[in-house]
Amino acid sequence: MEQANRNDRERAVLIGLRCEGLREFEGSDDDTMDELEELVKTAGGDTVARFVQNRAAPDPHSFIGEGKAAEIAETIKANDIELAVFDNEITPSQTRVLETILGCRVIDRNALILDIFADRAKTSEGKLQVELAQYQYLLPRLSGMWGHLVRQNASGGKSPIGTRGPGETQLETDRRHIRRKIQKLEKEIDEVKRIRSTQRHKRVENQVKLACIVGYTNAGKSTLLNTLTGAGIQANDRLFDTLDPTTRQMTLPDGRPLLVSDTVGFIRNLPHNLVDAFRATLEELTYADILIHVVDASDELWEEQSEVVEQLVEELGAAGTPRITVFNKVDKIHESMLPRRTGAVYCSALRGTGLEDLYRKIVDILDEGTRKVSFILPYSDGAVLDSLYREANVLRADYGEQGIEIEAVCDKKTQGRLKKYLPELEEKEEWML
Q: What is the pTM of this model?
């Protein structure tokens, strides 16, 4: 049975180009090829061979040069390889040339990631966003790209890697129809944005803070969300295991509620049209009160991965949001090998260790600019206490002869509402930082 399952997986060759003519993060090396192999595995394929070509600049016709392509074609033929996956982004014309030379289907890293997203999207919102990204990627690649795939699917074969998502009927349509479909999807996603905006306004009205968990794919974001909130979502050790965002509520040690939201994992060279399509989801980062950046401490490439996340956070307009760096999976490496970063939290989300520091840092950020105040609230204004329980951290509410004796930690906005009840503030009063 195991052998049969293995035979069902597509056989792939991985091809990368290393050259100075490509921008940072776009060239190939052993690390990016390892990651590409893991992506192929995630998509349901097996890597049979890998090639990295060194050139001064990409070949405009065949990207890697026709001589190298012919060499790879021999390996493809000898090993019955069905799919060539390029680590770099290639143009539609280069794709057609390479398919002719190699004698098999050709996709690039962008198409592979889109395919994985199409397979993983479960909610209607996630499916909408993935479908939009796939159509935007497909539009310039329509000419002659899908004929043999349509014939294969029509004959009853399973959808090969790189072809899941919109489906064969859409892929046979012309550019005009595709453009109309894109416009329709954009309108539907605008409705998603409107609904999320309404939800945000309700959250702000209820004075509930939001923390968004971000990080490289497979850093342990879903596991951390489960540990913090008891969300119970599935968390597996694989790339892009979580695509549809999950938001759950937790209670901080001081009793305050906090919403915690998981986000799709980032990866180097994440397709721009995918980032654009997922803005309806990812723009939550710009409205978050705190970003919890989860880093896999056991990964030797944690610095490069962290930089990729920071660049995407900046691109999404959330660079100014308070940040907590959490080095996760510390149980996997020796203490002497731990990454070092001032102010970071070190934990194992799976084992639930080291989270006390995270709680403390969350409270510190939320309390920045807040103040502990004491005052007597007249019984005639008792309704103020109800709103105070929603908007502040009430430490004490004792019922005395003159009124309700209250001690609470309030932000500046709440202090403004309580101005008439507060005595003159003395310099010696404590500011909570």
A: 0.73
